Amino acid sequence: MAKNQKGKHKFTAPIFNKNTTPNGGVNIDKSMSNAILRTKENNMDYQPNFTVSAQAISMVAEISALTERYAISLEMADSLKLRRANKIKTIQSSLAIEGNTLSVKQVTDILDGKRVVAPLREIQEVKNAINAYDIFPELDPFSVDDLLKVHKVMMAALVDEPGKFRKGGVGISDGKKLFI
Minimal CB count within 10 Å: which of 37, 97, 101, 133? Predict the structure, then answer.
């Protein structure tokens, strides 16, 4: 190994004689001293006794590409699972703020199309929230029309006029006392 300017060892890659073989590969010429890999620690010489063919290089490149595709598919699967979990928890927690008592498991079951034993209104709220969640990417958060559009989706089968502004006053109560 040669030393660089800072005194540290650097690896020098071997240079191969590019005589092609009958099958299109590359011969490693044993007589070339540059083809010898040498380490400073044990001062041992190693000279591989093989021929690198174009087919072998092609196969290594294909394996590398397939490995990368597999790694990307695993990342995508993890990303989809995370998005699904976030969707479920977002819907459940947002509806819980409004008094919906369904659990994360129940919301998951509704999303999966399974039957859930719960008040029909709460099941409808979850179904509406799922539909609203799915259209969020196409909505403009600064558009009044889109606000009414998502309100129509969220309140479908829950109020008389979903997707429209209220015409009367609304109050907040604890069941006995009116606060506003």
Answer: 97
Distance CA(97)–CA(50), nearest Å, equals 70
Please give the model's pTM, rounded to 2 decimal places. 0.61
Tell me the per-residue pLDDT of 24-58, one tens digit each, with 9 for 90 and over: 444 444 444 444 444 445 556 667 777 788 998 99
| C-alpha separations of 30 from 47, 109, 146, 175, 178 in Å | 7, 68, 74, 93, 95
Average pLDDT over residues 71-75: 90
Nearest to 167 by CA among 179, 176, 159, 175: 159
Residue 169 included in any domain: no
Q: What local confidence, expressed as pLDDT, does residue 16 receive? A: 43
For 118, the token pair is: 């719960």
Give the model's pLDDT for residue 156: 97
Find the domain containing 109 and state its range: 76-154
Residue located via tokens 């099941």: 123
Encoded tokens for 116: 């859930």
Residue 142: inside a domain, yes or no? Answer: yes
If DSSP codes are grouped into helix, strand and coil, which group holds residue 32?
coil
- The answer to whether the CB of 143 falls within 8 A of the CB of 136 is no
Q: Is residue 107 part of a domain?
A: yes
